[in-house]
Amino acid sequence: MNLWVTEYQSENLTIGCRVLKTLYREKTRFQEIMIAETLQFGKMLLLDGVIQTTVADEFVYHEMITHVGLNTLEKPRRVLVVGGGDGGSVREILKHKSVEKVTLVEIDGKVVESARAFLPEISCGLNDPRAEVIVDDGIKHVKENPDTYDMIIVDSTDPVGPAVGLFGADFYRDVYNALTENGLFVAQTESPFYNRELIPRIIGDVRSIFPVARFFMASIPTYPGGLWSFTMGSKKHDPLEVDINSIPKMETRYYNPEIHSSSFVLPEFVKELVK
Fold this sequence. Notes:
By secondary structure, the chain is an alpha/beta fold. It has two domains: 3-54, Roll (Spermidine Synthase, Chain: A, domain 2), CATH 2.30.140.10; 58-274, Vaccinia Virus protein VP39 (Rossmann fold). It is 27% helix and 33% strand. It is built from nine helices and twelve strands. Helix 6 (169-178) packs parallel to helix 7. The longest helix is centred in the N-terminal third of the chain and has 13 residues, at 58-70. It is globular. It starts with a strand and ends with a helix. The model has no long low-confidence stretch (mean pLDDT 95).
């Protein structure tokens, strides 16, 4: 049997992976969830046919969306993850000893349930007593919790459907208000190859709201173009001023002190997008 899963990454580009079997598939009120066993990347989570994470390369995304910001702060205690129902960001956040509580707000509880059942290597942090899972609208949660979190991570899907509101200036203003006085946020902000109109708007919005705005990147094979971006907005702390020699050692596979600095070194075509 010759089974393939195909993601239409743009109007003119697809990525296909050979599938051994489908582990889980369900249509919820928000989206279609599918977890498949692939030969190239192992278990793969897709939402509405779009690859969200795989066991082969998830460590890159989850380490970069968490550790860059957490190691920019001074002993963060309370962290919010908006989206990220697979639990990978929570797993990485809990590697920081200063963190007392991490709250995951996921709009589709079935994503959390399926990740717990079929992706335990990614979702394992959700079982930690410091982790709280809330099934709710992350936009609403941010608006209703001012001055609460030291760091907010926007671990969202692409800017379509329920996630559209997570890529706008109104949301970033609510994020600013939900952060403590020294807080910062990090969001995944798509591909510099295929989202060339989105990225300048996002970085412009963040710069208009936060005193410190930074843009950094990582290589993630299953995401469109293989080069992925993250945007940080900070009230006080600058990731470029971190003494990388003071970054504590932790178990990672991609992130390290040198990557902390080098991820902000941008190719010329990306500089043009964010200048």
